[in-house]
Each structure stands twice: as C-alpha cells, then as structure tokens.
Amino acid sequence: MAYIEPAPIKDKENPLESMMERFNLAAEKLGLSDEVYNVLKNPAKQVIVSLPITMDNGKIHVFEGIRVIHSNILGPAKGGIRFAPDVHLDEVKALAAWMTWKCAVVDIPYGGGKGGVRCNPREMSKGEIERLVRAYTLAMLDVFGPDKDIPAPDMGTGPREMAWLMDEYSKAHGMTVNAVVTGKPLVLGGSLGRTEATGRGVMVSALAAMQKLKINPFQATCAVQGFGNVGSWAAQLLEERGLKIVAISDISGAYHNENGINILEAIAYRDSNNGTLEGFTGAEKLSDPMDLLELEVDVLVPAAVEDVITIKNAEKIKAKLIVEGANGPTSAKADAIINEKGIMAVPDILANAGGVTVSYFEWVQNRLGYKWTAERVNRRSDRIMKDAFDHVYEASVKYNVPMRIAAYIVAIDKVAKTYTFRGGF
Ligand code: GLU
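A: This is the predicted complex of the input protein with glutamic acid.
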C-alpha cells in the first residue's frame, strides 16, 4: 500500500523524552512541587480514532487519527494537525506539551494540544485528503470547539484543510463556527498576517538575540533548513533585515551560495516548480543536505523537522546563534554540547510562537466578527514576540540557565500558578 509507510520512531530520538528532560530540569530549578509536577507531566486527554476512507481506487483504507490535549489550564487547547507518514503517539504528546509551554511563554490564554494522522499527503489526491480531513473532524466533534480545543495547520496541512475542517464542524452544528479552527483562508475568516506569522516571529527573535550577542545583521550570514511556510518566510524576512542567506534546503536537497541566495527568486522558483527547489540554479547543491547545519554562519535556523541537531552533529555546528523555527529540532542530548560551545539557542517554544500568536488574533477576530489590518496584526505580534524574548532572557540571567530552560521555567511557572489558583478536586 502506497498510502502509509510503516510507522514509528526509527532512529530518531524520542521527542517525548526530549521534552521531558527539559521539563524536569526547569521543574527542578523552579522547585515545583511533586503534585503540580504530576499534573503538568501527564496529558489531560488522548484520543485515537480509526478513519476508514474510500480511496480513489475504490478500496477502503483505515487511517489512524490522534488528538492529544496536553493541558487546558490556561484556556482551551490550541495546536496544529500534522499529516505525515511517521506520526506516532509519543510525538503528538510531545508536540501537544510544547504547545502548552509555547502559549504560556507568549502569554496567550490557551492550553496546548496537537493532532496527527499517519498518512502521506504527497501521495494522496485532493479528494482523498478532503475525505480524510472531514472524517477526522467528525470523529473529533466532541473534542474540538472554540472554547475547548482549536486546531490549526502543522506539517502536511494548510489553509485548504482548515477550510474543510471548519465546514464539516459547522455543518454538524447547523451554523457557521469559524472560531473552531485557525489558519483558515482569508475569505473564511482567516487573519491577515497568519501565513507569514511563524517566520516573522523567527525573524523578531533572531534580531533580539543578535542584539544581545552584538551581531550586526548587515554583516551576518545565515543558513535556513527547510523551505516550507516557516523556513521560506523566515529567510525572506531575515534577508529584508540585512542578513545574507547563504544556504537553504528542502526535501530535494540543500543549496549553498557564499555570496548570498536571492530568497524571492528561490521562492518564485519553488512556486513554479511543484513546490520544490529541485534544479534551483541560484546556488550550488551540497552533496549531503545535512552539511547545511555545519556551515560557517552566524545564524542557523532549523525550520524543518524534529531531531536534526543531535549528538551526532552538535559538536560540528559553527553558528553563534540557533533560532528554532521547527518544533523540537534539537534533541535534549545535544543541548549540553550546544551550551558547552557557547552557542545561544532560541528555543522552539519561544522562536516559533509567532504562528500561534496570530492564530490567537484570528480567533479573537472571528469571535468579534471583525477584521484587523495587517499592520495591526504585525505590530501586536512583534510586540508579543519581543516581550516574550525579553522575559525569557531575564529568566535565563536570573536562574543562570540557557534560554531553552529559561523558556520552560517561564512557561511552567505560569501554568503552575494558574493551576494552583484554579485548584482541583
Ligand atoms: N502548528 C503551529 C505550531 O506548532 C501553529 C499552531 C496554532 O496556530 O495553533 O505552533
């Protein structure tokens, strides 16, 4: 069967363990009580469903759909839906917890959740994907809701899928409920600025970190791994702010040009070439795409998948600053090496929080039945990202820990305090 590749974990480090290692370190620094530790450690809800879909060849294929709500202490759960061949429960649990910490770091009133369907959307037709999204939505009808759990795009999904989700949910409720999902197309209540929001937040956090490290953006070089929504927007916006982007990559390979790559040209090429950089002539193709991570650059932006900076290559990283556009690109075991080398890593739960921040604005606009200008969206999200960066930086000084653990400390402290006020049984 071409639709699903065999599942789990392979040689990847387990993202759940990576998340827990950092959580444990931060909890210890904070002096978190055992009771609250146990509450925050376990996901609040895990739902697994079977989704039988009639494929275009007439055969029924059963997909597995997952939704994990890690926490709804700060508010309704929030987080994307991932369609990928290697999605597994531990990964979704880690990603859901990261959403809890991410929303807490940027101080928006949401808990954390994440969904996943193990499938290969690249090998599926539009009709097959639509049926899968609709079946998943129906199966999660009791889980989702504008005040319960608000999905959004993640790897393998985008505005098109969110539109189907909104439509299916709305039909089941007999009314249009656009606040049930974010990352929608503009005409359906999507927000201006949402598409570029994650990349924009990466840019804001990179510039804030460069200021601390006294790196002049106009003299800085940068490599960006991943040229999907996050990577290409981050590259474009960093280039606009003066950085020279010397390497980019996607599933077709990594492309290097010491004199700088024209990012708008690369984006135009990708868009005219079935979404990939294959054959891009504005740079030279590296023989091993993973070499991009080890280039002599000032700033490295991993904006593709989990676990790309590991104990295997961390020692060879030469960047002074890592800004994590992806979720979980650095394994916990690599943290110590990165810290030892004096590299500043702006962690995922801070650096890529611009996406969920503008998702929050989209939800607010939907609930008000109102539309903000792009200028207002960008101004407010830039301010939130900069404040969050400063807050985490202060915590890193106060607790004498790297930025990653500082971000966990800020997040866990906030969720723990809220939990204590709300109380339990
Ligand atoms: N999937 C994105 C993330 O990991 C966005 C989530 C959202 O907007 O709810 O942050």
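The chain is about 45% helix and 15% strand. The pocket of glutamic acid is lined by residues 78-80, 152, 154, 182-183, 327, 352, 355-356, 359 (CB under 6 Å).
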